Amino acid sequence: MREPYLSWPEAAWLIVQYSVCANYLFMPQLLYSISGRLSWAVPIIAIPPAIAGAWAVYYLHTRFPGERLGQFLPRLVGRPLSIAIAGLYILFWIGGSVTNVTVFAHYLSDTILQFTPVTVLVATNMLIIVLVSLSGLKTLVRVNDALLFIVAPFLLFTWLWPFVASRLDFSNLLPVELSELTSDPLRVAMAAVTMYHGYLILLIAGPALNPSGLTALTAGALGTLLSVFVFLAFITMPLLAFGWPYANLLTYPAASFLEVVAPKTGLFPIRRFDFVLTVFFRYIMIVAAMSYFYSAAQTMSDLVSPAAKRMHPWFVVTLGIVLVMLSTLFKGIRTVMEFTSMWVILGASVAVMAPILALVAFLRPDAGHGR
Amino acid sequence: MCGCDVLRKIAALASTFLLMTMTAGCWDALDIDKRAFVSVIGLDLLDTDSGDRVQVSLLIPTLGGAGGGGAGGGGGAGTPETMPAKVLVVEESGANVEEAVENMRAMVGGVLDFSTVQYVAIGKSVNPDDLVSAMHTLHFTRFIPMTPLMFATEQKVSDLFHAESPSGRGFTDTLDAIQAQSRIGLGHVHYPQSWEIMTSLVNKAGDIALTAIDRTDKGDELQAVGAAVYDGTKYAGLVGPIDALILYCVAHRRYPGGTYPFAYEGRELLMRIVGARTSVKANRGGDDVPSLTVGIRVNAALMDSGGYRLPLLNRKKLDELEQVAARDMEDRLGRLLERLQGWNSDAMRLYHEVRVRMPEMSYEDFKEVYPRVEVDFDVSVLLVRTGLLR
Amino acid sequence: MRRPIKIIPRLIEAETRKAQPPDLSPESREPPVGAPLRFDDVEEQVSLISMALGSPSDLAVRRTSDGVVCLFLSPLVDQGAVRHSLVEPLGKADWSELQEKGQAARLLPVAGLSEARSLEAAVDRVAEGETALIVHGRPTPYTLDLRGRVARQVSPPISEPSVRGPRDSLTERLSDNLGLVRQRIRNRNLRVRELTVGLDTRTRVAVCYFEGKASPEIANAVIQRLSAIDTPAVLDSSYLMTYLAQRTWLLFPPAVATERADRVCAAIIQGRVVVICDNSPFALVIPIQMVTLFQANEDHYSLAIHSFLLRTVRIIGWLAATMAPGLYIGIASFNPGILPAHAAMTIAAARQGVPYPPVIEVLIMDIALEMLAEASVRLPTYVGGAATVVGGLILGTAAAQAKLVSNVMIIVVALTAIGSFAIPDYQNQLSWRTVKYLFTLSSAFLGIIGLTTAGLIILVYVCSVDVLGVPFMSPIAPWRWTAMVKDVAMRVPDPLAVELGKQQREEEAEGTADA
Q1: What are the C-alpha distances in Å from C394 to residues C365, C388, C390, C398, C408?
Q2: Complex ipTM, two decimals?
């Protein structure tokens, strides 16, 4: 990166998108299966580990200014270990990208485009992701910036309108039974730790921050906190509307909630308001999938040739094709959800890895600065 | 221009071309004029020699009549008010909804499209299991939205579909008009959305109540006759329009209300409820039978009726009327509850509060003790005077 | 393999007249009695210049006095100025009086008197329209700028009419255009750098910018890119577009081509660089952003709230122009359920009897509309009106009555057309009319999802474009809140705009003030 171009508000917004991504399609039911009616508490429990992770990434950013993960990792932990750790991140990011596009494709297939092969839908999304990755991180950031004006009003609408539309019944959250959280504490903890992982994008985009330094922490913290509202909405509102256990029976609770949130009156010009929201939320998914994909591709490229200014275009295209082929392994939303359960474990690992790396960097002041 | 720019462009073009080729199938393309838009779905029970079968009726507006529910003259020709609505009513039976729908495909001149379903009608005799299964099928197999409005009927749904309004209005338009008018008429009509019904059926936090729509005695019009209440998925009974109004006030906890009559000094007065808020508190009673207190705060506007005029600025008289109205409502609620307990229908959704206070009591347990549950109704009415006459 | 056919033109028998070079024989060199004296060095220079220019028939050689000769191309000079400023004064002067430049400048009331560096340079200057003054004893001629041209008068703009605002537009004459600019910006910081581009046409191009507001890097980059142009011909400012943008394939214009003088000056004041090309009434404003292409200068002559209304209408028009056909296909072929039931059935009823699927309907009508639009531009005025009426009748009533297309499609295509005409910049309009087909075809493949996919692809493209280092999507992406507030959705009233402008200058590190 020749010159920094990412302001901290842009970074925060990127982190929000990166966190939210397509989680609204699979995170609610994943949490419902882990923590039942008390799932609404998990986004709140997840805040402290997220702030800790954001701080760790900030520290790494200040220790290695101008360097991405794949560039400073070998100097920090040595080449063999750096490959293993980077491999973990790469798997997580690839898994995230595949999961995002695939779950969205399955959702579209289940609701709107029932006869179009899912692979075609995945390939359509992956095409855009590859195009952006070929254009560079700067384009990704700008696309994300432009989407603020399209996505934010709808995000706000889905968060505020239900309160006006009287669709919510807070007594559906009762009774509170703490046993729902404590019955499987490990899975709850992993879900909580993985939930807000958007700050990890700064491991790739950190060198682009302008100015660098404290802005990384500001962006990480603010992006995480904004994500909390969005996650609370997507996880809690289906519970408030549908109650328990009906919310748990739905394949896509948050998406179904969007369907019923539209005004009831026939005066409303669009009957399937969730359809409109689906279209716009797809943009969030695309941005997140782009970010995951770019992060994975860039890290792989950095490990192979740290000094390269750009990723090789054929490498990016090939990776995109590989991900499309990987998506064909998912035979429906059920396998996607099973994969997601494992992906959460990866997510927890990489989220925990960030503070560990920060600690190692703290203990090794001789690890070197810059290239 | 550097080589990597060229490579990027080639990659982009190749990807686009590949994608266009892959998507050349247009798998989901189906022209709008080749679709048969289903406006209303009806579920009935059909008693046959081979046993009970579910009968599915579909109301499909024809394109010649155009406009929703077959509003006449939608194609642009003719006089909308005088042309009868043109609809196609298709009936088929099957072991389940899916089979019935498959059987009727050949009868319809187009591909059935359920995305425009506006209403779902439940016949009185529908088997309770069929109702749940039908709702699941419609939501998760037929790809209909979760938002169609539901109502019940005391008659056969297929007969209902054949009602032709003299005004030429279509079936769904008539249903819409009934609800719109009920805000200023006696009683109130509430069509819950299908997801709300599913929520109640699955969560078992109370029983459902559906507005009952029947054909008039003359057979040519539709009318709202009250609310059909259920015990689980089993039809339990019918309550009249005024009872339906206060039932909705309690069941929905917040309700915009309708018009409620009450007696005063030998005359019948009317008050238009503009908002009712209900709070239900459950307590553990003796023998683990819950007792409940239902508090209803009603904001209403008094409407003169029968030439009975009240002095304009008499707040004292209004206070007295408030007390009378409240007592009237409490009495009516008490009688309504007795009927509901007789039918074992928790249409007031009292269990929704009981389960919070007594989490160990399941829905089935509650139903066993439901007839013995004591409920104390506390209604307060805030009345304002409206009207142009002194 | 097939042998190429050789084409041998048949010679015309009649003699052809050839242009006669000046008679340089010794006998002809003898001056007639009373004529000015001829000197060998002068005659040699005359001969060399004439031969270098190919002995053109419109080369005028005037021997004004002893040892003094004027050479010029008649169509390019102002004959009156030659007579008054050159011939008459020289008629009284001797060659010796013109030996020194200062004396020559005193004698001749011409501002643009200079010495040619060489005979070659003098030839080039004569070709550009200057007058060469050959004096006995001087190794190279003087050159004087007595150019006069046939050019039209300043007239109201044709392609950018407005209700409010000035009515003068640029013409084909560079000096006139610079005059229009200097009339409005009477500031010492206005910089004008002139270049010559086009190997064959040697067209004069002026780069104008405001020092202190424009980025020096951008101004230098423009000058450098123009200097590096190696194309043989530059007949219009549009030839310069690809060189300025340094991109061969462009979907959206990287510069605004405007014929409005006020718009040119507004751009200079904003800190942009303007390129004015001789022989072209359209000046290029660069760098620009996407939002600039949706702004009209009239926005600045109306109240802020009016500009908001107008810009909103333009955006709605733009959305209708690009997405209406795709939306129609998406609804009619894939997802009619997003509309209320009545609306879906109305469209279905309208489509009854139409033999073609919606995508074919759309393509038929769109292409017919494009043909109509193109025809109305190309046809002479007295025929154009009739053609438009016929086209409207065919596209409108007849097609629907023949059930070739549905009534709803007529409305869609009308909305598309009206929407596209609401886009202010003509090139921008053409770009989006092109993009519309991408949306249409994408929608035909995947419905509304295909439409949004195409939208995303276009968004990615415009986000990846930089014009002279300035992001094309700025100030929307990347975010520049001050600039966004100042002049994107609404043009804020001037006192506030001035404050915001100051704030912007403090914040911005980029080239143009409105980036």
Answers
A1: 10, 10, 6, 5, 15
A2: 0.91
Closest Cβ–Cβ partner in C345, C444, C450 for B61: C345
The whole-angstrom distance between residue B316's C-alpha and the CA centroid of its chain comes to 39
Q: Compute the CA torsion angle C72, C73, C79, C83 (nearest 10 deg).
A: 20
For residue A94, the one-letter residue type is I
For strand C131-135 and strand C190-197, is the pairing parallel, antiparallel, or unpaired?
Answer: unpaired
Regarding pTM above 0.90, the answer is no
Between chain A and chain C, the number of residue pairs with CB atoms below 8 A apart is 94
Contacts of A294 in chain C (CB under 8 A): none
CA dist C165 and C262 (Å) reads 8
Measured between alpha carbons, how far is A315 from A321 in angstroms, rounded to an integer?
Answer: 10
Measured distance CA(B138)–CA(B325) in Å, rounded: 43
Using a CB–CB cut-off of 8 Å, the residues of A that contact B are 111-117, 119-120, 123-124, 127, 130-131, 134-135, 166, 169, 171, 174-175, 177, 241-246, 249, 256, 259-260, 262, 264, 266, 271-272, 310, 312-314, 316-317, 320
Residue given tokens 């990792």 in the structure block: A73
Q: What is the 3-state secondary structure (H, E, C) of A290-323?
A: HHHHHHHHHHHHHHHCCCCCCCCHHHHHHHHHHH
Q: Give the Cα separation of B100 and B93 in Å (integer).
A: 5
- The answer to whether the Cβ–Cβ distance between B35 and C447 falls below 8 Å is no
Sign of CA dihedral C456, C460, C461, C466: positive
The distance of Cα C263 from the centroid of its chain, to the nearest Å, equals 13
List pLDDT tens digits, range A289-332.
Answer: 888 999 999 999 998 888 877 778 888 889 999 999 999 998 88
Strands C131-135 and B234-239, by their bridges, are unpaired
CB pairs A-B closer than 8 Å? 90
Q: Are C157 and C424 in contact (CB under 8 A)?
A: no
> What six digits make up the tokens of C514?
């409105």
Give the gap in angstroms from C-alpha B117 to the nearest C-alpha of chain C: 8
* Residue B331, φ and ψ in degrees, nearest 5: -60, -45
Q: How confident is the model at residue A182 (pLDDT cuts 50, 70, 90)?
A: confident
Q: Which residue of C has its CA nearest to B39?
A: C341
Say yes or no for a CB contact (<8 Å) between A279 and C449.
yes
**Taking Cα atoms as reference points, which of C360, C287, C292, C371 lies closest to residue C325?**
C360
pLDDT at C27: 52
pLDDT at B295: 96
- The alpha-carbon gap from B95 to the nearest alpha carbon of chain A, in Å, equals 24
Residue C221 pLDDT greater than 50, yes or no: yes
Instruction: Name the residue facing A142 among C334, C335, C478 (closest C-beta).
Output: C478
Kindly report the nearest CA distance between residue A230 and chain C, in angstroms. Answer: 22
pLDDT in tens, C45-96: 999 999 888 888 888 898 887 788 899 988 888 888 888 888 888 877 777 7
Closest CA to A304 of A84, A1, A71: A71
C160-169 pLDDT tens trace: 888 888 888 9
Does B64 contact chain C (CB < 8 Å)? yes
Closest-approach residue (CA) in chain C for B21:
C445
Which residue in B has a C-alpha nearest to residue A309's C-alpha? Answer: B4
Long-range pairs for A304-309: beta carbons < 8 A, 24 or more residues apart: A306/A70, A306/A71, A306/A74, A306/A371, A307/A371
Residue ranges of the alpha helices (H) in chain B?
A: 3-22, 97-103, 128-140, 157-161, 171-182, 194-203, 241-251, 315-343, 351-357, 363-369
Which of A45-59, C30-44, C348-362 shows the lowest per-residue confidence on average (mean pLDDT)? C30-44
Report percent pLDDT > 70 for chain C.
90
What is the chain A residue with the closest CA to C475?
A: A146
**What does the pLDDT look like over C286-328, one tens digit per residue?**
999 999 999 988 888 888 889 899 999 999 999 999 999 999 9
